[in-house]
Design a protein that fits this description.
The protein has 6 helices and 6 strands; from the N terminus they run βαβααββααβαβ. It is of the alpha/beta class. The structure holds adenosine-5'-diphosphate (ADP) and magnesium ion.
Length: about 150
């Protein structure tokens, strides 16, 4: 069973995707088999950061049962042999408003992914799903910017 790490932030644009992708690459270079999972359900874009503009398989395919297991949505990334990605989806209405059974199935399959580390990029804010995806992990990272807000 892999170690699951989640990356979150209070606000969007804080750098979650940047931290997830670079941390994933760093861990891959250290020899861990890492799967990045884009669970920023309202604005998934990790695939774009890796130049995969039209991913062949996405989280939507799993949620819509086009594929049976989440593992089938794992796509290799050319940047490193140890690094792979489950792309999020453009279908934000489906993924942002996941019914409970679909979310439960997703979390169950996350635990069963192959490899050493699953690195989950969750959305910003405190939506129920966001908190569930964040807290589900074994380890948690939060990203913040140094804005003081008093200028
Ligand atoms: N450490 C950094 N230094 C400079 N720019 C950054 C840094 N981290 C992120 N950015 C930029 O900030 C923007 C938002 O980053 P992103 O990782 O997409 O945020 P989030 O995933 O939290 O919405 C992007 O344009 C990204 O290039
Ligand atoms: Mg992001």
């Amino acid at each position: 069973m892999p170690i699951i790490l989640s990356v979150a932030s209070g606000k969007g644009g804080a750098g979650k995707s940047m931290v997830s992708s670079n941390l994933g690459l760093l861990l891959a270079k250290r020899g861990y088999r890492v799967t990045l999972v884009d669970l920023d359900t309202g604005g998934a874009n990790l695939h774009v950061l890796f130049g995969h503009f039209h991913p062949q398989v996405t989280l939507t395919d799993f949620l819509n049962r086009k594929i049976k297991t989440l593992q089938e949505a794992v796509q290799p990334l050319s940047v490193h042999a140890n690094l792979s990605l489950i792309s999020g989806t453009g279908e934000t209405l489906l993924t942002s408003n996941l019914p409970h059974p679909k979310k439960k199935r997703l979390l169950n399959h996350l635990r069963k992914l192959e490899g050493d580390i699953v690195l989950v990029d969750v959305g910003a804010g405190t939506h129920f799903h966001t908190l569930d995806f964040f807290l589900f992990a074994n380890g948690h990272l939060t990203v913040a910017t140094p804005d003081r807000g008093d200028t």
